[in-house]
Amino acid sequence: MYRQRLLVLAIATAIVASHSGAAQSRHERKARQLEKAAQPKAVAGGVTFPTPMPIEKCFDAVLNHLKRRGHDIDLADREAGRIATVIEVAGGHSQTGTRALATLIEDSDSQTSVRVAVTAQKRKKLLVTEPWSDPKVDESESAKAAAEMEKALQGAR
Question: How far is CA 96 from the centre of its chain?
């Protein structure tokens, strides 16, 4: 009888300890959801333009251009050819976050296509901060950012 209870207690403890949700509080889960919602996501759309530069040189030029424009960099993956800026938040209780995403595509050894997308996300920050909504591409801002970037890349050649 004593051994059976000890065995049942050991098995129950192992099951509860292995359950991922049991070790986290509600606040920790909410914080993890907020962090996940703020991560850069791939979006369809934006403005694409070609540039006669190798991808390595183009990546450095795009990264430097974004830094000179005052953007903090959240993601700069040379292998994947992706650069994402940190969300810039505007507003009080009803917030809008904007982020610039640049994707570099190697067309040939001396030709690279650059896709620029400026995205907007929304959230409410009242008693409890809600996660960011899915990003939506702002075509007019993307066109402006792409024109500025194309001009900067022409000067970097």
Answer: 15
pTM for the model stands at 0.75
| CATH label, 40-156, candidates 3.40.228.10, 1.10.3720.10, 3.30.540.10, 3.30.310.220 | 3.30.310.220
Segment 60-89, tens digit of pLDDT: 999 999 999 999 999 999 999 999 999 999
Q: Are 103 and 81 spatial neighbours (Cβ–Cβ below 8 Å)?
A: yes
Are 49 and 113 contacting, i.e. CB atoms less than 8 angstroms apart? yes
Domain boundaries, the chain: 1-37, 40-156
Backbone phi and psi for residue 36, each to the nearest 5 degrees, phi listed first:
-65, -40
Residue 18 tokens, joined: 């292995």
